[in-house]
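Predict the 3D structure for this chain.
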Amino acid sequence: MKQYISYLLFALAGMLFAWYLYLNHKKWIGTVIVRAILSIVVIYLINTVVLNFGIEALVGVNFVSIGITAFLGVPGLLLLYGASVFF
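Done. Predicted structure below.
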């Protein structure tokens, strides 16, 4: 039950953050959407290249990895691949 409450609070916080961005920073939403689409493409391309070299450092394309790279950019992408190498 506690887990559902934390999921609900996390979803509510995300919706409030999105609403804040929509009201105050309409330019940010477009930027984040473009960065999210580019992050999907870049993660897919890097995974393809890394697999061809036989390295087992893959990052999955999911909401968490897309969100990290959309908000943090290249440092977020490096963070994801660094974490996949060490963990």
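The CA atoms of residues 77 and 83 lie 10 Å apart.
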